[in-house]
Design a protein that fits this description.
heterodimer; A: alpha+beta; 3-stranded antiparallel β-sheet; 5 helices; 3 strands; elongated; B: 7-stranded mixed β-sheet
């Protein structure tokens, strides 16, 4: 299979590989995929207010999966949470020129962004001063 | 046939600085044509272009003589007689002819076939075709080492079993099946035994008499011959095996395979078999040494590397390893100057990992992480060392970005993780 230049570029020089402290209240972590399916992505965001100030990823998967998650971290850095949630897998497909058999890689990257944002929001909710719920 | 055309000549052995990239290490997929084989073939593309079926002039006689000499060479490497060799376009055609030909010929005897889940697709798909036409097929599950034994076959035997189709050696993991035991069992039960020996001929000793084989296929391009030519061995005595031809026409190959003979290809197959037979021992020793050097060089530097196949019963030049927490295709991408294969789903359009590794139940996760290294006649030590170095480097790099490897380092048992999504 021939890879697009952009996939090769992300594979050879992946952006933002690494981990953030998953226990930090300002960090949201999304882990999607499964080992037996051949891809697992971990995408993490560090949030200040509602803005993503840092993003890191680690991916077990093919070159297109690595490139999709690398690109995703690049794109979400500096965006607000709502802006990040607007990223669609089709944007990733287009940017990386992914062939049809690799579309699932882009879907996984979109899912990883959503999971990381959801995790952050859940944490923020938990740490927010509790409101009294009337029954 | 000049000695200098042999890339293995001492003055042609590469050093690290003269080594050519990319390196070919996929000898189970195909092999380069041996220069000696090419030399033998060339006249038949030129002045000796005759049709082997032309009985009344010198052009035809010359071609026929060359074909018959090749038939002798093919027979010899199998321990067969030349009258038992039918030339085909390769193993796939030979498999179709053997399986369909037997089922049609012996339809009255029974309709049950025994084969294995780890067979090549050519056998599995032919079996599926025969199922659609009324056959019942038992697909044996190979062991964790991919091996099928006589006991496995015996347990599946029925009074109406007409054919056993078990490969000699597996193309993905290199496991050598208990062919002699299965052959003896089939002989005792009066069942025809067909074995796909595509990966075997020229690699390990083959003797259709001692091994009780009734039908056997081989392909030239797996043993340093050209693509598009192969043969089917069809036992003629004790017992005589008869087939219904699957290709109608001029009655070539004693009626079993019509079509003008591919004379240059057949000459190449003959030369490849002759060289394979003459050099078998030396080549086996060489391939084993290189294969073990490769494995040692890799496993001495990396943890979590799994061996797939059988340590005891294996082909000399095949090494299949799984690198946990690294996906096979991304690994292939990183070692793009080394030609190897992966059992990962991502290398196939189907998104299903290797059916062989699945049948062995190594687990889909390890199947996705598997790499097959094929070592052969022209592989050198320098290439093996380079391949091992590159591979170790890339596995380390990919593990550094693998969330699975990170979890394992943190002491998490991956089997207890609840995974989200996936496909």
């Amino acid at each position: 299979m021939a890879y697009s230049d952009k996939v090769l570029d992300h594979y050879n020089q992946p952006r933002n590989v690494g981990s953030l402290d998953k226990n930090s209240t300002t960090v949201g972590t999304g882990v999607v995929g499964a080992p037996e399916c051949g891809d697992v992505m971990k995408l993490q965001i560090e949030v200040d207010g509602d803005r993503i100030v840092d993003a890191k990823f680690k991916t077990f998967g093919c070159g297109s999966a690595i490139a999709s998650s690398s690109l995703a971290t690049e794109w979400i850095k500096g965006k607000t949470l709502d802006e990040a949630l607007e990223i669609r897998n089709t944007d990733i497909v287009q940017e990386l020129s992914l062939p049809p058999v690799k579309i699932h890689c882009s879907v996984l990257a979109e899912d990883a962004i959503k999971a990381a944002v959801a995790d952050f929001k859940a944490k923020a909710q938990e740490n927010a001063p509790k409101e009294v719920v009337k029954s | 046939m000049t000695a200098t055309s042999d890339p293995r000549a001492p003055d042609r052995q590469p050093t690290l600085s003269t080594m050519k990239l990319p390196i070919y290490m996929d000898y189970q997929a195909t092999t380069p044509v041996d220069p000696r084989v090419l030399d033998a073939m060339l006249p038949f593309f030129g002045p000796d272009f005759g049709n082997a079926a032309s009985r009344n002039h010198a052009f035809g006689w010359r071609a026929e003589e060359a074909v018959e000499n090749a038939r002798e060479d093919v027979a010899k490497v199998l321990g067969a007689s030349s009258k038992e060799i039918v030339f085909t376009s390769g193993s796939t055609e030979a498999i179709n002819l053997a399986m369909k030909g037997v089922v049609e010929m012996y339809a009255e005897k029974g309709k049950h076939i025994i084969t294995s889940e780890s067979e090549h697709k050519a056998v599995l798909d032919t079996a599926k075709h025969l199922e659609k036409h009324g056959c019942e097929v038992t697909y044996l599950k190979p062991g964790r080492d991919a091996r099928t034994t006589a006991a496995d076959v015996a347990a599946a035997m029925r009074p109406d079993t007409v054919l056993v189709a078990i490969m000699w050696a597996n193309n993905e993991v290199g496991t050598v099946n208990d062919v002699r035991g299965i052959g003896a069992l089939c002989k005792e039960r009066g069942v025809i035994f067909f074995t796909d020996a595509t990966q075997t001929v020229g690699k390990i000793p083959v003797d259709v008499e001692a091994d009780h084989v009734d039908l056997l296929c081989l392909s030239a391009h797996k043993l340093y011959g050209p693509k598009g030519v192969g043969a089917l061995y069809v036992r003629r005595r004790n017992p005589r095996v008869r087939l219904v031809a699957q290709m109608d026409g001029g009655g070539h190959e004693r009626g079993m395979r019509s079509g003008t003979l591919n004379v240059p290809g057949i000459v190449g197959l003959g030369a490849a078999c002759r060289i394979g037979r003459e050099e078998l021992e030396a080549e086996t020793r060489r391939a084993i040494a290189l294969r073990d050097r490769l494995e040692q060089s890799i496993t001495s530097r990396l943890d979590h590397v799994h061996f797939n196949g059988s340590r005891e019963h294996r082909l000399p030049g095949c090494l299949n390893l799984s690198f946990s927490y690294v996906e096979g295709e991304s690994l292939l991408m990183g070692i793009s100057d080394i030609a190897v294969s992966s059992g990962s789903a991502c290398t196939s359009a189907s998104l299903e990992p290797s059916h062989v590794l699945r049948a062995m139940e190594v687990g889909d996760e390890l199947a996705h992480s598997s790499i097959r290294f094929g070592i052969g006649r022209f592989t050198t030590e320098v290439e093996v060392d380079y391949a091992a170095d590159r591979l170790v480097e890339v596995v380390r790099k990919l593990r550094a970005m693998s969330p699975l490897y990170e979890m394992v380092q943190e002491g998490i048992d991956l089997s207890t993780v609840k995974w989200q999504g996936g496909h």
